[in-house]
Amino acid sequence: MGVGSHYDESAARLAAFASITDEALIATDEQGAVNEWNAAAERLFGYSADEMLGRPFSSVVTLPDSSSNPARSIQISAARKDGRPIAMSLSIAPVRRANGTADGTIYIARDLDARARAIRAVKHLAAIVESSDDAIVSKDLNGIIVSWNEAAERMFGYTAEEAIGRSIRMVIPADRQAEEDDVLARIRRGDRLDHFETIRQRKDGSRFAISLTVSPLLDDDGRVIGASKIARDISDQKRLETERTRLLLEAEHNAATTERLNEFAIKVASALDRDTVVQAVTDAGTELTTAAFGAFFYNIDDDAGDSLVLYTLSGVAREAFSQFPMPRNTAVFERTFRGQGPVRSGDITKDPRYGHNYPNRGMPPGHLPVRSYLAVPVKTRSGEVLGGLLFGHPETNRFTEQHERLAVATAAWASVALENSRLYLGLQDANRLKDEFLATLSHEL
Questions:
Q1: Which residues share a beta bridge with 148?
Q2: How confident is the model at residue 248 (pLDDT cuts 50, 70, 90)?
Q3: CA Rg value for the chain
Q4: Is 366 left (phi over 0), alpha (psi -120 to 50) or beta?
Q5: What is the pLDDT of residues 26-76, one digit of tens each?
Q6: How far apart are CA 294 and CA 257, in angstroms?
Q7: Going by C-beta distance under 8 Å and a sequence separation of 6 or more, which residues neighbour residue 389?
Q8: How far is CA 270 from CA 167, 261, 410, in A?
């Protein structure tokens, strides 16, 4: 290969390099006239190649004397075409022929202000990432963690040293691993996920709700090389939403309960027939306490003054109580049916008094399966025990304090209604006796 062809080949390589580099590359001949002015030089100085080719580079930049130290890097100030100043780093390298004679100079110029701005931007971005309350994480297309900020350490419990280099799947619960497959597939397509709500897992195994935003990361050529993820802990928000929903449902339930109580009050207040009153009381109490069945046991005086009978039932056939002992005679319910107060049991089989009346068997054969019980006395204003309401359910821990309060309120209405019924019946008896007396008196007269 001759000297000329080698020179041409070097020039071709220089031209190819000049076309792709982001740094301003300028070549001058031995007289200092520009013979190469790449696209980066156009962007830096504002002059096009057509404007600069053949023009002295010194018309744009004040060049130092290079005779004593021809190859070096310096920092100088220059001006763009529009007059704006440029602080730049200028690398200078002389070009020589094979015989050592000068053949021009190569200059590489770098915008120091742009570099400083870039460094400041990187530092500013890093400060934002580290001070963020949201976990900010980046990963490659295989899900391997590349960066992990302090908020991610606090949120997930892993330090940056523990997390970087490991798969992001370590914070994804086993039953949600398919989510990561879907996310990676979408990221490879260049898609973005906004505010995706899901569940993630801390180092200690505890789970929490997060809102996740995932964006693709691109290289200089626009190719997707990974993803950035911003995760926000929304556990408190979810708890507030759940509590709000619970309170709304509770308010609706309370409104419905109040309406039902009002309907019940009107019904029992207007009823004077004892059978009608007691059945309405039993039905209402069963509904309000969400019991599977309800029963009213009524005290009826006998010679011994100690008689208790099953009077009404709700939610179950009477045959289901055919073998049921009188509650007043059981160790569990004696308190209620003696007028001493309510009894509420989450699981009657765990009560130490359970089975005292039926040793080793608990409930009598054929009795319906019941675990939760609630019983309240029905008394007059003077304290006389009229009877008691008994509610049951086959599930454990069915009755709450609210159910007990509703049962007590139902019993209070029952007491008033039964008193009214008794007064009405007494008045009827008095009227009957009066009519009989007047009839007898009339006959005698």
A1: 137
A2: confident
A3: 47
A4: left
A5: 989 888 899 989 988 898 899 999 999 999 998 888 877 654 455 678 888
A6: 17
A7: 281, 282, 285, 294, 295, 296, 375, 376, 378, 407, 410, 411, 414
A8: 73, 14, 15
Per-residue pLDDT at 360: 40
pLDDT tens digits for 316-365? 777 766 666 566 567 777 788 778 888 898 888 887 777 665 444 445 55
C-alpha distance from residue 392 to each of 251, 257, 285, 293 (Å) = 25, 19, 11, 6
Instruction: Please report, for residues 121, 338, 383, the alpha-carbon distance to residue 378 in angstroms, rounded to integers and kept in the order given.
Output: 79, 10, 9
CB count, 10 Å around CB of 14?
A: 16
**C-alpha span between 386 and 300 (Å, rounded):** 8
Residues 229, 293: Cα–Cα separation, whole Å: 55
CB atoms within 10 A of CB 32: 14
The edge-to-edge listing of strands for the beta sheet with 385-393 is 307-314, 293-300, 385-393, 372-379, 343-345
Beta bridge partner(s), residue 95: 104
Cβ partners under 8 Å of residue 108, min gap 6: 23, 24, 25, 26, 90, 91
CA distance 238 to 253: 22
What would the two tokens of residue 289 be?
């306490």
178 and 190 Cβ atoms separated by less than 8 Å:
no
How far apart, in whole angstroms, are the C-alpha atoms of residue 81 and residue 285? 92
Looking at the chain, the number of H-run helices and the number of E-run strands are: 11, 15
Mean pLDDT (the chain, rounded): 78
Beta bridge partners of 56: 33
List the beta bridge partners of residue 293.
392
